[in-house]
Every structure is written in structure tokens, then in C-alpha cells.
């Protein structure tokens, strides 16, 4: 199992009440799968994603990624682990506005050892494959939303992390761009990556090997991949 | 780190408004501090110079001289030996800067009572030679005539005059001063001693006491008196208080206010830099969260924020030094004519400013940097909140 959560609970105390974002969640994912995590807004999808991405410590339970107990690591060990083993894609792209597409994509290199760095040619090949060859020296504000998300995917996959996490990656995209994004994510899965996509739209289900649903912090597994009729 | 440095530079250019506002404020503060420091050291030098120009601020007269008579006359009628000067110099311990021996007496000129003063070149303490020629120097065989006495004699510069049974060349005719100088004939001390038949005698020694002592009443004059008592038992020493006091007051004021102004400037610009840094961090919360997701550590995040502050500091130091120096050199002499000549650019100030400004900027950005490092990326990166 590349990802393994057992009995993970995460609560957020607020002024009036305590929100239970994750309630005794057990979750496993095999390497080389593309999984979808659906659920209504506020159900705990992002909380789950950040928890297994090593950015949100659960109140209880264990999180294992690549056989590594994530929260048994120190903060800096966890950051180093994240740098090479986990890629993130967000709804808001989070591209750095003052860097070009190329510089944004190369950003993960800032935190890893020189010997482990891919060369710049590889970065350009990746951008070409994602249809951004002509955009390499442009700033994010010059790009369309779809191009921005493809840049973010290039950044997340530059170091070929075994795990790729995407939080509503198509939330700000039109249908065509969204389809492109899902196409790229399945390609990454086909190259051996494990992909977990958070979404509250059913369009993504078509691309997934496995679909999970979360409602009010409780995880439910849809045993079968829903067929075409569920989409739209 | 060069990677992070590139990131800092690109960010500075991108958010140039915030950068300019920080730079502007810090540069203005540095320029003001540089200007104030330059003006202060100019005033410092100038008070020293003024003290010399105004004249002596200690006078030594024979013990036999009656103080009442001295003030009524304006000079001492009694004499002391001119070897007193040599004894003072040989003692070597006395707290003075320059010694000027004079011999003054009344003389009859065309039926009127004028005054002759013989004056010698200023003498300096051993091992402390003066850089500049001090006081009036009269060439032997020559005289300097006061305005009225020159009129009385009908003498002009370069002419010969007959006085006290000998011939003198008029070296200079002074303009009207409105003081006793107008009826005074200045001669070389030795000439005056000879002409007045008072060889080896002087009536007064004027001394410029140590300008470093800021309480002349207690230390300088006290020490001088005590030391003189041992060396020259037959003298009395007085301080011309007003000159000394005015000088001390001026220096005290500068010393009191300029550090205060500089501290206020530093605090105000630090507060401004801190606020701007906090705004910058707020704007970059998403960016910082993303870097965290990519595995960037707290040290790198801190470096990005503090490195930015240090760059602002260094740029402001360089710009502020150049602008402050330029403005002070250009407008300082007009605003402070008394100290105009002493205003100089000073590279030691650049050194201080180059170290101090980045330190202030770093200090001001410390809290924003801590906030940036402590920020929870899961909060910023979570969508639809
Ligand atoms: N940092 C937080 N502070 C307080 N409440 C939070 C925080 N993060 C998440 N929550 C709450 O936890 C629940 C789940 O949030 P989230 O995982 O973002 O939902 P989703 O991504 O499914 O929309 C929500 O009710 C949300 O308000
Ligand atoms: Mg969410």
C-alpha cells in the first residue's frame, strides 16, 4: 500500500462548536492507481488530502505514505519527504506571479540536493509534452486558466513524485481544460504514479480506478467504479 | 542560497511599490542621519576653531596686579618676567592649548594717550605643535596701527613712522573696530619691550584652554590654577566665562539633540519597515504556503523575508549616504554659515550606515518573518473556505 490511513481523526475547534473534519477515517491506496475523492463542500476532502500530504497533523490515527509514518518524522524530515515524494496541485494554481512558467516549474529544485536534480532539458521536454513550449518564458498572468493549471501540474510532477495529490484541480476551469487536466493526471498514473484527486464533480469519475466518498468526515468506499451514466 | 536570492530579487522588482515605499522611507532616514552627523561634526570642528578665533579664554596676570585696576584699565600695569612662558612650556603638564605673551603700556602719540601692545607668536605645549598659525604676528621693526591712531599719525600702510624714538614701518592699518583696538599700536613683543624700556617683561599671558574639557570652570581652570601655582607662584589666572560658556552650551545642545533626533528617525523608519514587511508577508501567504507544500523549510522562508529586508537596508544605506552627503554639501553651508567651512563628506559614516541600516531593517522584519514561518500552509492552501 502506497498510502495507508488508519483511524485518522481531525477536529477543528471553533468559537461555538468543534468541527469534526475527519472522523475515524481508514483509507488505503495501491500504487499506480488513480483515485477520486468526492463529497459535498465542507465534508473534509481537503483536510484528508493535507493530512496525507504531511501538512496537517491528525489528532489521532496514523498516516503512512510509502511505508513511512509521516507524523513520526520531524517537521523538517517531513518537508524533505514532501519535496521529493509528494506532488501537489491546487484549485487556485498557486503559481508565483513574478516567476516565468519555466521558473515556476523549476521551483521544486530549490529544496533538493544538486545531484538529484533533473536537468533543464528535462523540464523543457515536460513543458513541451504539456503543450506549454511557447509559454516557457511567460508570466502566469499571461496564461489562460488551463495553461496555468498545466504549469502547476508540470511543477508538481517535475521530480516524478510517487504520489500526486490534487485538490479540486478543475474547479476554476472550463470543461475542455478540465478534460485536459484529467487526461494529464491519468497519463501520470499510466507512468506509474499514484494520483488522488479531490473533486465534488462527477465528471472526474470517468477517469478514476477507484472512487471514495466522504460525507461529514466519514469515508465511504464506492466498491465499483461508477459507470458512464453517473457522469454529468 | 543563490536560488533564494534570485527569488528575493524577482519579488522586489515585481512588488516594486512596496519595495519603493520601504526604500524611500529608509533612504530618507539614512540621508537625514548622515546629514545630521555631518553637520554635527562640522559644528564640533567649528566650535574649536571659533574658540581660537574669538580669542583667549584664560588670562594670566602678575600676582601683584590689582584686579580692579586691571579691569578699569583693560590691561595690567604690572609686569612679570617673560621667562614665565618658558617655565610653563617646560613644565609640560599644563592644560592649555596656546600661550600668547603680551606687553601693554600707554604711550603718548601726538599729544594723545594711545596704547602699545607687544605681542609674540603663540607658543604651544610640547609635543603638540599647532597646525595653523595662531593670532596676530607682527614682523620685527613693523607695527599694526589701529584705525584712529593711524588717522592721528596720518600714516598709511608701507610708510615709515617715528614713535618712541625709533622708526617703524606700518605693516597694516586696521579697519575701524569700535573698540580699544582703534587706539592700539601692535608691535612685535621684543620690539615693544625694547622701545618701552621694559626688556624681559610681559604684562599678561593669554591662554586657550583645552577645548575638550566641557566644564572649564571645574576642571580646566581648576587644573590650570593648581598647576600654575606650582610653576608660577607670582601669577593669578582668570577665565573669560562667557566665551567658554557659550561654546559649551552649543556643544551640549548638539550632543543632546542629535542623538535624540537620530533615535526617533531609526524608530520611525523601523516601524514603517515593519508594517510594510507585514503587508508583504500577508500578500505572499499563498506563495509561502506553496513553497511549504514543495518542501521548503522554515529557514528558507525566513531567509526570503529577512534577505529582502537586508537588501532594502543595504540599498537604503548606499542611496541614503549618497543623497544625504550630496544634500548636506549642497545646502548645508547656506543653512549653517557658521560651520560652512567644516562640512565634509565622511566615509566612516558610510561604514556605520552600511552595517546599521540592514540591522534595523532585519530587526523591523523579525516579527513578520516569524509570522511567515509560523503560518500554517494547510490553512492557506485549503480551497473554498
Ligand atoms: N483550519 C480550520 N479551522 C477551522 N475549521 C476548519 C479548518 N479547516 C477545515 N475546517 C472545517 O473542517 C471541515 C472540512 O473542511 P474541508 O476539508 O476544507 O472540506 P472540503 O475540502 O471537503 O470542502 C469544514 O467544516 C471546515 O469548515
Ligand atoms: Mg476543499
Q: Ligands bound here?
A: adenosine-5'-diphosphate, magnesium ion
**Which structural class do the helices and strands of chain A define?**
alpha/beta
Number of domains of chain A: 1
Q: In what order do the strands lie side by side in the largest sheet of chain A?
A: 6-7-8-3-9-10
CATH class of chain A: Alpha Beta
The shape of chain B is: elongated
Q: How many distinct beta strands of chain A?
A: 10
Largest sheet, spatial ordering of strands of chain B: 6-7-5-8-4-3-10-1-11
Output mean pLDDT of chain B. 84
Task: Write a compact overview of the structure shown.
Chain A is an alpha/beta fold and 232 residues long. Chain A is built from 6 helices and 10 strands. Helices cover 28% and strands 27% of the residues of chain A.
Would you give an account of this structure?
The complex is a heterodimer of chains A (232) and B (385). A six-stranded mixed beta sheet of chain A has the order 6-7-8-3-9-10, sandwiched between helices. In chain A, strands 2-1-4-5 form a four-stranded antiparallel beta sheet, with helices on one face. In chain A, a hairpin with a 2-residue loop joins strand 9 and strand 10. The model of chain A is unreliable at 228-232 (pLDDT under 50). The longest helix of chain A is centred in the C-terminal third of the chain and has 16 residues, at 175-190. Chain A is built from six helices and ten strands; from the N terminus they run E-E-E-H-E-E-H-E-H-H-H-E-H-E-E-E. With 232 residues, chain A is α/β, with parallel strands linked by helices. Chain B has 385 residues and is an alpha+beta fold. Chain B has two domains: 2-50 and 249-384, no CATH class; 58-239, no CATH class. Chain B has 13 helices and eleven strands. Chain B has helices spanning 2-14, 16-54, 67-73, 83-91, 147-153, 189-195, 216-231, 241-283, 285-293, 298-335, 347-364, 366-374, 377-381, and strands at 58-62, 80-81, 96-109, 112-119, 142-145, 160-163, 166-173, 184-188, 201-202, 204-209, 235-239. Chain B has a nine-stranded mixed beta sheet. In chain B, strands 2-9 form a two-stranded antiparallel sheet. Residues 52-56 and 210-219 of chain B have low confidence and may be disordered. Chain A binds chain B through residues 41, 46-47, 50, 53, 55-56, 75-76, 79-84, 88, 90-92, 94, 96-99, 103, 107-112, 155, 167-168, 171, and chain B through 3-4, 7, 10-11, 13-15, 286-287, 289-298, 300, 377-378, 381-384. Adenosine-5'-diphosphate sits between chains A (12, 14, 19, 21, 39, 41-47) and B (379, 382, 384).
